Amino acid sequence: MSAAFVTGGSSGIGLEAARQLASAGHDVALFARDPDKLLAARNSILNDAPSRRIEIFPVDVSERDTMLAAIDRALDIFGAPQMAIASAGIAEPGLFTEQSLALHEEHMAVNYFGSLYFTRAVSDAMITAGGGKIGLISSGAAFFGIYGYGAYAPSKFALRGLAEVLHLELGHKGIGITLCYPPDTDTPQLAAENRTKPVATQKITKGGGLWSAQDVAAALIEGMNKDKFVVTPGFQIGALHRLTSLIAPALRWHQKRIIRKEEP
Ligand SMILES: NC(=O)C1=CN([C@@H]2O[C@H](COP(=O)(O)OP(=O)(O)OC[C@H]3O[C@@H](n4cnc5c(N)ncnc54)[C@H](OP(=O)(O)O)[C@@H]3O)[C@@H](O)[C@H]2O)C=CC1
Ligand SMILES: CCCCCCCCCCCCCCCC(=O)[C@@H](N)CO
Questions:
Q1: Which of 5, 79, 112, 257 is the most buried (most CB within 10 A)?
Q2: Ligand 2: which residue has its CA nearest to atom 12?
Q3: Residue 102 sits in which domain range?
Q4: Rounded to an integer, what distance in angstroms lies between the CA atom of residue 68 and that of residue 45?
Q5: Exposure of 201 by Cβ count < 10 A (0-12 exposed, 13-18 middle, 19+ buried)?
Q6: Could you tell me the CATH number of the domain that includes residue 77?
Q7: 8-state DSSP, 113
Q8: What is the dihedral of CA 73, 16, 235, 240, to 10 degrees?
Q9: How many domains does one find in the chain?
Q10: pLDDT band at 138; cut points 50, 70, 90
């Protein structure tokens, strides 16, 4: 039986991806910090896919050695996964002059290095096993600098840089890399960030549309199955992906208009 490993699998996009992979016949390993949320996620997935094996691994993806040890335990149980998705992430919007340096470091540690440790460990195992597919979640905020995302966006730009290299280096070793750029997606994280998000940031990101976690997860998994490198949910994100360097001056002009009005 083939397995799927999912970080951030206890909530939002990761939980929906894990649920869809279990329903498609995969056993699943879930990685996230809060054991209670992991248990609830396991029960909810088992409800939809009762005959699958679902194991939970309470771990902080940014703690390198404990994370690698947790993946080793999952590899002992399941062997190399056929599918692996790194969805664990944090997003705290705010202004550069008001955010702490520690918060910048935390975004890189979780969103970038957490995804990197996971990718390194599962790709090593997949190469030995003869192949596999890895899904990484960047963001629509990784195409151009968006007001209010000084701590968050760079971690997603970095992930994009890594994925572009891995697509080239691992592709011919039988490892598919799929990079997803979701717009705002209706998850607990979006609800939490909206409580402190500057009004200008909300108005700017609204232009990307609002997706459900189910639909983003489905688009990512479909992209992985079809060996697509890039998944862009929605026409706005698709257009941004193709056009950003061309329309960068227009995107700055568009934001400055909103910022002048909302952030005196
Ligand atoms: N929602 C949105 O609008 C968008 C989201 N994204 C990206 O999609 C991904 C998923 O986001 P979303 O589903 O909205 O978020 P949620 O907050 O709903 O879920 C995040 C998951 O990541 C886990 N997680 C967070 N920090 C850590 C950590 N340090 N170690 C291990 N697990 C961690 C959480 O569990 P726990 O807290 O228990 O650890 C939870 O399972 C993120 O990378 C996000 O940046 C991209 C674009 C838009
Ligand atoms: C010429 C003028 C055209 C203007 C169009 C502007 C469209 C911008 C869309 C960007 C959407 C980015 C959402 C990121 C969400 C995210 O990553 C967080 N919610 C994470 O939790």
A1: 5
A2: 140
A3: 3-262
A4: 25
A5: buried
A6: 3.40.50.720
A7: I
A8: -40
A9: 1
A10: very high
